[in-house]
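=== RUN LOG ===
request id: a7f3
mode: sequence -> structure
chains: 1
length: 190
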Amino acid sequence: MRDYPQNIGLAELSDRELIHQFREGSNRNYAFNLIIRKYQERLYWHIRKMVISHDDTDDVLQNTFIKAFEGLDRFREDSSLFTWLYRIATNESLSFLKKKKGNLIQLGQNLKHLEKTLESDAYCSGDEIQMKLQKAIIRLPRKQRLVFNMKYFDEMKYEEISEILKTSVGALKASYHHALKKLEQYLAED
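=== RESULT ===
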């Protein structure tokens, strides 16, 4: 068993070491807290781009880490830890949006709600152009928005996105292309 000092840098520990430490059991909570610290910010922004609201993002992020904690013993390491966490965060976000959409009856209401949330969010700052882009992104269909955010903002490769979303690279490229065309159209309208 390897004990890690409290001040060890996250970059010094590989995901494999963190998973091993978690599974060993003696420092299970500490190892998981290191995983949270390592991936929390990236997952937060991934979720935030989908659910928009800071408070909703915090809830979805918490659910993501709860699911990860519960499932880490069964993680087969077929993919990277980050990919596995990203997949959980994506699924939790989509589940949240599906549940919320059921409460907001029509797409028009949902779009107005998302725009209002974006405009009134104290954590969302940006100039007029940034706000215009965010409003255009909100108008994209859910899958196109997800693919666009992962490719454009998170700078992920299509192969990584394919692994997370369980979709072919060709389908992802088509979704990204359609998203770009729609964004151009939306931005030209305003």
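=== NOTES ===
Confidence is low (pLDDT under 50) at residues 1-7, 103-109.
The chain has two domains: 1-106, 125-190.
=== END ===
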